[in-house]
Structures are given as C-alpha cells and as structure tokens.
Amino acid sequence: MRLTNENILTAFREAAALQSAGSFPAAADAWRRIVAAAPTSPEAWRNFGDVLTRLEQFAEAETAYRQAVARKPDAVWSLWGLAGFLHKTGRWREAEPLYARALAVTPDDPALRLAYGHLRLGLGDFAAGWPLYESRKGLPGQGADPPPLRNEWQGEPVAGRRLLIWPEQGFGDQIQFVRYALAIQALGAEVVLVCPPELHALFAELPLNVLAGAQTLTLDEPDYWTLTLSAPGRLGVALADVTGAPYLSVPADRRAKWAGHAPRGAVGVAWRGRGTHPNDAHRSLPSAEALGPLRQAGANLIDLTEPVGDFADLAAIIEQLDLVVTVDTAVAHLAGALGKPCWIMLPWFRQDWRWFQGRTDSPWYDSVRLFRQAAPGDWGPVMASVADAFQARG
Q1: Which band of pLDDT confidence, cut at 50, 70 and 90, is reported for residue 7?
Q2: Which listed site, 9, 162, 263, 314, has its alpha carbon 20 to 30 Å from 180?
Q3: What is the pLDDT of residues 98-119, one digit of tens each?
Q4: Are residues 331 and 354 in the same domain?
Q5: What are 370's strand-pairing partners?
Q6: What is the DSSP letter of 344?
Q7: Residues 295 and 267 sit within 8 Å (Cβ to Cβ)
C-alpha cells in the first residue's frame, strides 16, 4: 500500500502495534515504508531504529537513530535512542556525550540516569557512576526494591551502629558485592545481611549475621539500611580501590557432601545463564555443543548449569575443579569469589559495565580471565581462543 498524508497516521498506529506485540520483522517493514513516505519524521526513525536493533540489523539501525537525532537534536528520546544503541554495541565513549546532552534536558529521569550510570561505571568513573546508579531503586525490572524501613544509609559513620543490608538483583550481583558487607563491618558496624535462601548457607560462612528469606522476615528497626549494590557507593569506592582477593569459602558440610564428585583435573562449564535475564539470548551459548572445541582440546567437562542444590553445593563442586569456563552469569562470580581459576566468555552486545572494556583481566577477581566476543552472536572465535588457552596451560 502506498502511504499518503491521509493514511500515514493509521500506518503509524499499525507499526507501533506490531512493535509492541513483538512482531519485529513485520514492524520493520512497516516502519521502512513510513520513513520512505515521511522521511522528516524523527519519531518514525527512532522507532525504526529500535526495531532494527531488536533484529540485530545494526548498521541500518544506526542510520535510523542518527536520522532521528538530525531531525530532533534536542529531544531526549532521540538522543537517548542513539546513546543507548552506541552503549549496547560497545561504543561507550561515543555514547557518553549523547547521554550527557539528554540528561541536561531531563536531569531527574531515573531510567536515563541509570543508563548513564552504567556507562560511567563501565568507563571506570565510579565517582560519577555510583550516584547515578542509585536511580535503579524502585524502577520496574531492576529487582532493586527498598525495604519498608527508615534511615537509608548515606555513608554516615557506622561504628557501634546496627546496619541492615537488603538483597537486590540477581545471585551474581549479590555474590560480587557481598564483599562490601565485610568492609562495612570492618568500620565497626553490627552488620545484618539479608539474602535469598539459595545464598544463605554460602554467606553464612562469612563473619556476619546472615538471615535468609527477605519476604518472610520480621526485623527490628536498624539504625541504618542499604541495598547490597549501594554499599560501594556509600563507602566511596573508586576503581583503584577494588581488590580481587577471594572472600568466600565452602561450608564444611557441603565439602563432605560432594567429596569426590569431580574427577581430578576436571573443567566446570556454564554455557547458559538463567533465561529470565534480559540479555540471556546474547550472553548464553546457543547450546552445549558450542563447547566442542574445548572438549576436543582435551578438557574433561562438567556441566555446572545442571541443578545441584544451592550455591553452597555449587561452591563445593567448583572447589574440586581445575578450571571454570563460563558465560557471564552467577557461576562466574562464585568461582571468582572462591579464588578458582575462571575464564569468562563475554558477549559483544550489551556487555555488562562491570567487565569494563579492553581488558583480559578483572579487578574484581584475581583468578578471572576474560574472553570477549568480537562480533554479535559469533562464539566460534571465542571458543577457539578458550581451547587454545586450555592447551597452552600444558
């Protein structure tokens, strides 16, 4: 159908409906017709860019986003569209001034502040990143809902005070940042750490008061509380302050339970994450068969994605392994926190801020080595590099 001024609005509605319904190929066709008929519409170009990004047609998507910015250079939604695209596709330095321009227009938009916070943290600018990162609290989809308590900790002196740390986000996030509960306790606080039941036995090995089951707890009012991932910002942690020494250990009963489970020299592999993660399609391997080069290189593989119990059980198995090879999921953080040699395979698209850019090591974990995907969806060269590195270990 040829679009005219009379039916362009109807075409907009139909394209938007297809996009909202997740019918991205049909939506792309619809928006392509619209921008051909109405090339001066920045809204159409922005929507077209969003759909093309979902279809991983990245070159055409970038063109669409730039068309939107060219036609509406001061609109937050046009600037944010291009900034987000550049951010997701690894061009973080190019995204930075666009985010800054958008925030200058709407400095209090929490979702925009959070996106920019991820970027600043990924660039190593923790001083700017942590305050922006606080915008995640209460945002839909962030898993960072505050507890119904007063007196959120803002970094006040805590010696002699009772401070409650409330869980948030995923298991890997909590494993990575529980280290700062220890740092707060070292300042003289009486720390009460709340965690999901799956982490309780593992975290109970820490010299902290650890409670499980945030949804069922009845707590006395603490002097202060903080979310788990707010702690480093409240402590004023800079990138140079991050240390990678191990800080978790395996409970004795789980070590006994799993004794002899893994053969000598075995390599644990986690080829997929939890399917509920928004980037799981990109961070996970297409199947366990993709691990073939590592197996052919002589590795005796144990699949760590198979359910074994809680994270204390998994830690007991990891402790027996020679090496862990994993995608970016909680297994990576657990292995790193235990000090187990761990090779993490990172996706090209929407790479997490905490791994920074251009590094093969991680300041968070001394035992970690990073293998980065060079092109979207192309795990073959990554697995070849992992297999070569395994053979080079001798």
Answers
A1: confident
A2: 314
A3: 999 999 999 999 999 999 999 9
A4: yes
A5: 344
A6: E
A7: no
